[in-house]
Design goal:
Order of helices and strands: HHEEEHHHHHEEEEEHHEHEEEEHHHH
Helix content: 25-40%
Strand order of the largest sheet: 4-8-12-9
Largest sheet: 4 strands, antiparallel
Radius of gyration: 21 Å
Number of helices: 14
Shape: globular
Number of domains: 1
Strand content: 5-15%
């Protein structure tokens, strides 16, 4: 037995090797590729659905009251997204360094194209260019309040839709799976989880909760109505086959494609919920509004990992996470324990494969952050995001990737 429900996890977890873990998880479901992790566990997702539309978990996954990552909510503060390395890279390395890395990346791309380097050929660049168009269209379509073109129940002359908490969750989950979401979960905002919403968006607008009937935005702020307190968090599956070719443009276009899909799912979900008679706010740009991986952990989509990102039982790390906030009451979900964080304590394969050595080799997660780009208050394997972004900046031509990474 891996688990004993009557004893603490730290006392009952069996310390197992990679091979033993694969055997327990089911005939070699875990594979890793140099430079990028493939899906951690290829689970059979064709399970019966419960009243809230949840698929039953694979046998090795437990639903738990607390996530496998430790939180200290007293230490967590609402984070300014402009402090992320993604948004504020120049703040950490200087404008001169950014310009130099962009120049090196552009020269590398031209050289690889001339030399017909695999992953950077004309065919590869053409594929990236096609996906980039879709991403740019998605970015333009994103907004805090959504398209707001769907007819509301009031405009149709009827009352808004209503159902039980489970039925509401099932309806939204079914619609989003139809739109293309791989996994969907829900949590309720409270004084603690509200801290995972950014204080400021990447464009500098302040995000504020107010006692108003409808969420709105102005030139300087985005207002979330207090009654909008249910978070919808969803995952978009990525291609492990193309991501294993990182850091080439083949892998890059996979990332761009998932962001584009995530944006379209947001637009469609916002319109669907509007059509039911409720409000739904989302990110006004890519990687906006709040910390999606944290919401994913709390909603049971997966566990935090040595990557300091979420890993799901079904798709491994090959997902991108997004979330929205609605005033449609739904049945909420719980975190899971699939043994992922425990496995990460011993594996370290992602840290070994990381080209810029940006991932942690620590045996245990820590409360100590690596820089201002990390939000304190949770125990994790914190990454060196400056090393990571520096590697991408000198590897990829930034005119194509700055809206993605």
């Amino acid at each position: 037995m891996l688990f004993n429900e009557n004893r603490p996890m730290s006392e009952t977890r069996k310390r197992i090797s990679r091979r033993e873990f694969l055997q327990l998880a089911g005939v070699g479901g875990v594979t890793m590729a140099t430079g990028a992790a493939q899906p951690a566990l290829q689970a059979n997702t064709r399970h019966a659905l419960d009243a809230a539309g949840r698929a039953s978990h694979p046998w090795w996954v437990r639903t738990v009251d607390k996530p496998t990552v430790e939180f200290n909510w007293e230490q967590i503060k609402r984070f300014d997204s402009r402090s992320t390395v993604r948004s504020g890279f120049a703040k950490y390395v200087g404008e001169e360094r950014v310009e130099y890395l962009s120049k090196v990346a552009a020269e590398n791309e031209k050289r690889r194209l001339r030399e017909n380097v695999s992953g950077y050929t004309l065919k590869d660049l053409a594929l990236r260019g096609a996906v980039q168009i879709q991403l740019e269209e998605a970015r333009v379509s994103l907004s805090f309040l959504g398209p707001q073109r769907a007819l509301t129940p009031e405009e149709r002359g009827v009352s808004k839709w209503s159902g039980s908490l489970e039925e509401s969750a099932r309806v939204v989950r079914a619609a989003m799976r139809h739109f293309g979401a791989a996994k969907v979960g829900f949590i309720e905002l409270n004084d603690n989880t509200r801290k995972l919403i950014y204080s400021h968006d990447p464009d500098g607008k302040q995000i504020i909760f107010e006692e108003v009937n409808d969420s709105y935005e102005s030139e300087t702020k985005r207002i979330i109505a207090n009654k909008a307190k249910w978070v919808i968090v969803y995952a978009v599956q990525m291609s492990g086959e193309t991501l294993r070719r990182a850091p080439t443009v083949i892998a890059e276009q996979s990332t761009a494609l998932s962001y584009a899909r995530g944006a379209f799912i947001q637009n469609q979900t916002q319109e669907f919920i509007r059509g039911l008679g409720y409000q739904c706010v989302g990110g006004a740009s890519v990687n906006a509004l709040g910390i999606a991986p944290a919401f994913g952990v709390l909603a049971g989509l997966g566990e935090l990992s040595r990557l300091n990102r979420l890993i799901t039982p079904e798709y491994g790390p090959m997902v991108r996470l997004f979330f929205m906030i609605t005033d449609l009451p739904v049945a909420v979900d719980k975190p899971i324990d699939a043994g992922i964080m425990e496995f990460c304590r011993h594996c370290k394969k992602c840290a070994e494969a990381c080209p810029p050595a940006a991932l942690s080799f620590d045996d245990e997660p820590t409360w100590n952050t690596r820089g201002q780009w990390n939000n304190a208050g949770h125990k994790a394997y914190f990454e060196d995001s400056v090393k990571c972004m520096t590697y991408w900046r000198e590897t990829m031509e930034q005119r194509r990737t700055q809206s993605v990474f």
